[in-house]
Design a protein that fits this description.
With about 180 residues, the chain is an all-alpha fold. About 70% of the residues lie in helices and about 0% in strands. The structure holds heme C. The site of heme C has 22 residues, from helix 3, helix 6 and helix 7.
């Protein structure tokens, strides 16, 4: 009598072959994906990681310049609140962009060629990125709230809060070098 269905033994072997082929297909797909990610233009974390770090440091330097003017003006007698609000607005914009400049290739450590990766950011950022992201967002909101202050006193209050946000974030997410002796 003709047997149409394969023997149980062959069915097991066939099943194993399917599993092996599927595994192979997944592995090939994964490695193809990895390789193609390397080649996709625009993934600047991969091929321009030094520039990404420099960009986020420049963003912070821009924030610092605005903040310095705000704080100095608030110490003076007649701060021009409208000008200071425009500066707070720029800080808010920059703080909104900032946390998007942290691809994993820019973690502190040693680059493939043995050179140190030039960042003062701490690993804590990548260990719980959502926490870092939330803090950056909160600081951007604080800066924005300063732009909405109805009175000079309210603005002053928000500026203090913003300074607290800078320092609070740096305490955890930036490794500050001790000042070198003169
Ligand atoms: C959400 C976290 C966060 C907030 C908020 C924040 N910073 Fe930073 N800041 C960082 C990190 C992280 C670095 C290190 C960047 C690097 O070296 O890759 C940094 C670096 C800096 C630097 C050094 C830049 C350089 O050239 O290396 C300055 C100056 C600075 N911040 C000023 C400020 C000021 C002023 C504020 C508040 C108005 C502020 N930051 C708010 C996280 C923050």
């Amino acid at each position: 009598m003709l047997r149409i269905s394969p023997s149980p033994k062959r069915r097991v072997a066939g099943g194993l072959a399917v599993v092996a082929l599927t595994t192979l297909a997944v592995m090939v797909a994964a490695s193809t994906k990895l390789r193609s990610e390397d080649r996709v233009p625009g993934l600047t974390g991969i091929d321009r990681s030094d520039d990404v770090i420099a960009a986020r440091q420049l963003v912070m330097d821009g924030i610092e310049s605005e903040m310095m003017v705000i704080e100095l003006a608030l110490e003076g007698n007649a701060p021009q609140i409208d000008d200071l609000k425009a500066r707070a607005d720029r800080i808010s914009t920059l703080l909104t962009a900032f946390p998007h400049l942290f691809p994993p290739q820019t973690k502190p450590g040693v680059a493939a060629d043995g050179s140190p990766i030039n960042t003062t950011a701490t690993l804590a950022i990548w260990q719980d990125f959502d926490a870092f992201y939330g803090i950056a967002k909160g600081a951007a909101t604080t800066a924005y709230d300063a732009t909405q202050a109805g009175t000079a006193d309210k603005f002053r209050e928000q500026a203090k809060k913003l300074r607290g946000a800078c320092d609070g974030c740096h305490a955890v997410y930036m490794k500050v070098e001790p000042p070198s002796p003169p």
